[in-house]
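Figure S4 source data
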Amino acid sequence: MRYLASLKTFLETGTLGPLTREANLLQVDELFGPPQEWTFTPDDIRPLHWIYNDRESYLSLNIIFEPVAPYPVKSISFEEGGFEEAFETFGYHLAVTTDGFDRELRPSDFLRSDLWKDRDVRIFFSGHEDRLVIAVTFRTVSKALMLGETKTIRRSCTSPGSTKTSNSASWMRT
């Protein structure tokens, strides 16, 4: 079966189509099939980091599971690249509509979006090497925009409460 999910709904609720934080490893496998890639440490009994790639870009959907059975979902994130089309396809079973949140979105438009109305929102500005970092956090969603010398937007993500910024994740729900 194929599913269509909304990036905006994901940011608002943490639900990505049929995938919720209440799902576990076997349920994710039933929904989306096996991942194209996975990683695990020598201590893991099974791979706990599943990666579903967009078939036409470098964008990937990452699902990380807790290390204890029944291996519930710990976090869901989009990494690398950026949303380029009206929708992106991950694996063979999931398409995500971008709802206008793509790599062309200006930071000011992102900050003015209706996602933030009536929410506990925190916005932080800081410098990172040669870039300006704008981090927006609400609920358990974190989004950071990195502005470099070339005036292009590179997206990265931080975990709520974290001061470390990674250059890889675009959107993350933890």
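Figure S5 source data
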Amino acid sequence: MQVNKVLNFTYAGNSIVKPVCGLNAVPQEGVIHPHEFVFVYQEQDAQERRWQHLTQSLRERLCHYGLEMAILDNHQEPRQSSIAVVHKDAYLIVQSMAYEGVVGEFNLQHILEFGFAPVLTRQIDLLRTLNGLEYVMKTGY
């Protein structure tokens, strides 16, 4: 099982994870396991100002549900920005989101890195996922 380390350590070979809010759900040794990813949003050529606004919006929308966020900095693809939302019960949350119609596209590399969490690349998919995630967190998973 692949392990993703937090705070200036590498994950998935060549990425750095920077916590955005909380990280209470991450075990004390500071790692994020693939089954703890709720979803990952990736964007090519993200503008810094827009990316900061997106991060702030996600923080305001999600952190009060006990979800944690981290920015994944992939050195293999420096033009790609990624943000991950994690939770200790992510597997159950992802299953509940699937019942709400939130299903991501999967490939083997994503499953090895992020478990069964959807990996999103379009903003409309991010919005749908956020709406589904908020519904699941409000009503229970």
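Residues 4-139 form one domain. The chain has one domain: 4-139.
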